[in-house]
Amino acid sequence: MNHVKSLVSIFTVTGFCLIFFSCRNDLSSNSDFLIHVDSIRVPETVIQAKSFDIEFFGVIGFNGCYSFKTFNRVVKGNEITIEAFGTLDEKSGVCPDVLVTLDGIKLSSTINLPGIYQIIIKEPDSFTLIKQIIVN
């Protein structure tokens, strides 16, 4: 009889833990997305091992629930691929009417070897924006 009570207790505790730890916190629900970058500004020539800025321009969203989140940068050979991500806070309630833009947000970068490099900006729907720079 004690054996049955022990098993019931174990299953009850295990079930409670599974239910408790599987609950999702829906208080904040954000959706991340790839931003369409209209243009970038970068020097045509940069000096190796010296930091330079890449400035980004484009619309993130059409109300105050949109915001910039992060850049993802991958360097492979002479190609620098960058993705600009935004986020939409879907649980914030009423969103103010405002156009949210990148407005020159900067990504600092450094290239250690001289050569000709391609900066590739990944866009939604498999489009890309490409800019060539020379590193001396």
- The domain count comes to 1
CATH architecture: Sandwich
Helix and strand element order: HEEEEEEEEEEE
Share in β-strands:
over 45%
End-to-end span in angstroms? 82 Å
Low-confidence stretches: 10-26
Shape: elongated
- Helix and strand composition category: alpha+beta
| Average pLDDT number | 86
- Biggest β-sheet strands, sense, barrel: 6 strands, mixed
Number of alpha- plus pi-helical segments: 1
Overall number of strands:
11
Q: Short description, anyone?
A:
The protein has 136 residues and is of the alpha+beta class.
Task: Using brief descriptors, characterize the structure shown.
11 strands, Immunoglobulin-like, single chain, three-stranded antiparallel β-sheet, 1 helix, 136 residues, 47% strand, alpha+beta, six-stranded mixed β-sheet
Account of the protein in words:
There is one protein chain. With 136 residues, the protein is an alpha+beta fold. It has one domain (28-135): Immunoglobulin-like, CATH 2.60.40. The protein contains 1 helix and 11 strands. The strands form 3 sheets. Strands 1, 3, 6, 7, 10 and 11 form a 6-stranded mixed sheet that branches. The longest helix is centred in the N-terminal third of the chain and has 21 residues, at 2-22. It starts with a helix and ends with a strand. Residues 10-26 have low confidence and may be disordered.
List the helices and strands and how they pair.
Layout: H1 2-22, E1 30-34, E2 39-41, E3 45-46, E4 52-57, E5 59-61, E6 66-76, E7 79-89, E8 100-101, E9 105-109, E10 115-122, E11 128-135
Parallel strand pairs: 3-11, 7-10
Antiparallel strand pairs: 1-7, 2-4, 4-9, 5-8, 6-7, 10-11
